[in-house]
Amino acid sequence: VVAEVEDVEAVAVETVVVGDRVPDEDTAALLLATREALLNAARHGRPPVTVYLKASEDRVEVFVRDRGEGFDLDAIPHDRFGVRESILGRVRRRGGTAEVTSSPGRGTEVHLTTPQRGEERLRDG
């Protein structure tokens, strides 16, 4: 996902991954939402763009951050679904949590979390 965004947007993404997990439908949704958040950060934010992913025993968390001008989520017209559905809604529909924190002049951070379900087990990476 990170390599694709770097290639498409010609931007370097600082990446940290801790842990490992067998992919499933929840993590697929999380990665698609992460891709959208990274594309937005690359297109609308300023470097550095960073992604931090942590796979633990009970959940997978992703933080995507940029240092751009920030934005007001409530000011986005309701007919625009990018952030609301492609990022936040996609993760929430899988039982996860999704938040956007953005401050004018301080950038934007997207925090996504999906729970680990069933018999999947963490593999230390």
Task: Draw up the topology in text.
Elements: H1 2-9, E1 13-18, H2 25-44, E2 49-55, E3 59-66, H3 82-92, E4 97-103, E5 107-115
Parallel strand pairs: 1-2
Antiparallel strand pairs: 2-3, 3-5, 4-5
Helix pairs in contact: 2-3
What's a quick, concise take on this entry?
The chain has 125 residues and is an alpha+beta fold.
Structure overview:
The protein is of the alpha+beta class and 125 residues long. Helices cover 31% and strands 30% of the residues. The protein has 3 helices and 5 strands; from the N terminus they run H-E-H-E-E-H-E-E. It has helices at 2-9, 25-44, 82-92, and strands at 13-18, 49-55, 59-66, 97-103, 107-115. It has a 5-stranded mixed beta sheet with strand order 1-2-3-5-4, covered by helices on one side. Helix 2 runs antiparallel to helix 3. The longest helix has 20 residues, at 25-44. It is globular, with a radius of gyration of 14 Å. It starts with a helix and ends in a 10-residue tail after the last strand.
Task: Supply database-style keywords.
single chain, 125 residues, 5-stranded mixed β-sheet, alpha+beta
For the sheet with most strands, the description reads: 5 strands, mixed
Tally the helices: 3
What's the alpha carbon Rg, rounded to whole Å? 14 Å
Give the beta-strand count.
Answer: 5
Structural class: alpha+beta
Beta-strand content estimate: 25-35%
Q: Termini separation (Å)?
A: 18 Å
Question: Into which percent range does the helicity of residues fall?
Answer: 25-40%
Mean pLDDT rating:
85
User: How do the SSEs run, as a string of H and E?
Assistant: HEHEEHEE
Shape, please? globular
Spatial strand arrangement across the major sheet:
1-2-3-5-4
